[in-house]
Design brief:
The protein is mainly α. The protein has helices spanning 25-42, 59-62, 64-73, 89-102, 110-122, 126-145, and strands spanning 2-7, 10-16, 52-53, 76-77. α1 (25-42) packs parallel to α3 and α4 (89-102) crosses α6.
């Protein structure tokens, strides 16, 4: 499982979880710790402003441990309507181009795949991320107009 955090300037953290590990609140909080450190290193000063995080309603994201972590650091969560994966930038903007890039590639090892993923993210144009984040406003408006129903039908 891979977790990708990005801002309008590009990928902040690509966190790849080994195949034999599941995601739980403790692992998710550990990923948030690494994200916080990556923001501190790569975007000095950003943590002085309000951080707004968008994630879905998966159990690790809504668990008490995660909520306590977010409260401790004052990070705001952008609400995510139930059953609306079409509002997550990774679903509507990232996975399609990534699938097209990987296409018919075959990888001998998991390390080969991880290397290709890192290479792909490292070579994306910064506008790729800006477009994905900027499209959130219109997608949210569509969701509101549809009373919380799917944006893409």
């Amino acid at each position: 499982m891979a977790t990708v955090f990005w801002d309008a300037k590009g990928v902040i953290l690509l966190d790849i979880l080994p195949q034999d590990l599941g995601v739980n609140a403790a692992r998710y909080c550990s990923t948030l710790d690494r994200l916080k450190e990556a923001i501190r290193r790569k975007r000095p000063g950003l943590l002085r402003w309000d951080v707004v995080l968008q994630h879905d309603n998966a159990t690790p994201h809504s668990a008490n441990l995660t909520q306590q972590w977010l409260q401790r650091y004052g990070w705001e969560i952008l609400p995510h309507p139930a059953h609306s994966p079409d509002l997550a930038p990774s679903d509507f903007h990232l996975f399609g181009p990534l699938k097209r890039h990987l296409g018919d590639m075959a990888f001998e090892t998991e390390d080969d795949l991880i290397s290709e993923l890192r290479n792909w993210f490292d070579n994306l144009d910064v506008d790729f991320f800006r477009v994905g984040i900027n499209s959130l406003l219109s997608r949210w408006q569509k969701c509101i107009d549809l009373y919380g129903d799917y944006v893409e039908k």
